[in-house]
Amino acid sequence: MMTRGGWLRLGWALVSAALLQGCANTTQSGAIGLQRSQLLLISSEVVNNQAAIGFQQLTSDARAQKQLNTDQALTQRVRRIGQDLIAHVAVFRPDAQAWAWEINVFDSDEINAFCAPGGKIGVYTGIVRKLQLSDDELAAVMGHEIAHALREHSREKLSQQALSNVLTATVSAAAGIDSSLLDAGSNLLVHLPNSRAMELESDVMGLELMARAGYNPAQASLIWKKMQQLSKGKQGAGFLSTHPANDDRIATLEAYVPTVLPLYEEALAAKAAAPHSANKAAARTSTPVRKR
User: Fold this and answer.
1) Is the residue at 69 inside a domain?
2) Is residue 290 part of a domain?
3) Residue among 246, 194, 150, 183 nearest 39 (CA)
4) How far apart are CA 11 and CA 50, in angstroms?
5) Backbone angles phi, psi at 136, to 5 degrees
6) The dihedral of CA 24, 183, 46, 151: what is its sign?
7) CB–CB of 172/178 below 8 Å?
8) Model confidence over 11-50: pLDDT tens digits?
9) According to the model, what pLDDT value does residue 86 have?
10) Residue 36 has what pLDDT?
11) Distances in Å between the alpha carbon of 16 and those of 9, 11, 13, 40, 285?
12) Environment class of 161 (CB within 10 Å of its CB; exposed 0-12, middle 13-18, buried 19+)
């Protein structure tokens, strides 16, 4: 029978091996300078396949209930903005250009949007209509969700949970402590703070994506100001929430605006020059060649 010391040595050996093999960075740093290493013990293929199955089921159910892409104008708007953002994902990870991206709008009062692993985007009509989102604000929402997928936060959370399960089981066996108490402690001290960090990380990644796509990054914080007005004190305690408090998100987004503002200005300049260049090309084509 293994002693408590043996259990602890085994646990730390497993943790050390996991940290050595699983630490990586799924994305390039971009203009925002993203550098955080991630624990990735589960393969992308497993997570992405499961996400694709779930998205297909959600889409199928919504179609059967006639709640899929019912507002054509809104669907076209969401897909246009989504494609604008997807055009710049290579800044963070070039391989994402080859993902099988899908964008659907779900008819629901829920104030929500998501981008599942592998590029499956869903936007609920509730978030657009209840918050009366402008194109810039909608780009911020979608950019944030796309960033979750690019950064593989779902895969990272699953990896953290897997490692936590091994560690708590080992410590419980070694010390004779109820594992449920250890699970509660690890949730408060590890998983929730990491979840909040991931949300802020996605906020600033999304900010860069929207700026590069020609959407005003200074408008991104307006979403959370609107959320404050909508909630009017109903938001749960920030410490126990997996999402940062609205004030924290507003401050973080506004702090990064100067970093990405030049990218937005470059995108605007490129858009302004594009019609001019096209007109010049058309003029050259249509001008008759004089015979000498």
Assistant:
1) yes
2) no
3) 194
4) 29
5) -60, -45
6) negative
7) yes
8) 444 445 444 445 677 888 899 988 888 878 788 888 888 8
9) 98
10) 82
11) 10, 9, 5, 13, 66
12) middle
| Global pTM exceeds 0.85 | no
**Is the residue at 16 inside a domain?**
no
| pLDDT tens per residue, range 176-197 | 545 454 344 434 444 444 577 8
Known catalytic residue: 145?
yes
Which are the contacts of 260, defined by CB distance < 8 A and separation ≥ 6? 31, 32, 207, 208, 211, 212, 217
Q: Domain span at residue 257?
A: 21-279
Active-site entry in 145, 152, 156, 201: 145
Q: How many CB atoms lie within 10 A of CB 63?
A: 12
Amino acid at 74: L
Overall domain count for the chain: 1
Distance CA 29, CA 91 (A): 8
187 within domain boundaries: yes
pLDDT at 165: 62
Structure tokens at 84: 């604008």
Cα 111 to Cα 124: distance, rounded to the nearest angstrom: 7
Rounded average pLDDT per 10-residue block, the chain, 292 residues: 44 46 74 84 83 91 96 98 98 95 96 92 95 97 95 83 58 49 43 68 96 98 88 51 71 96 96 68 38 34
**CA–CA distance, 47 with 8 (Å, rounded to integer):** 30
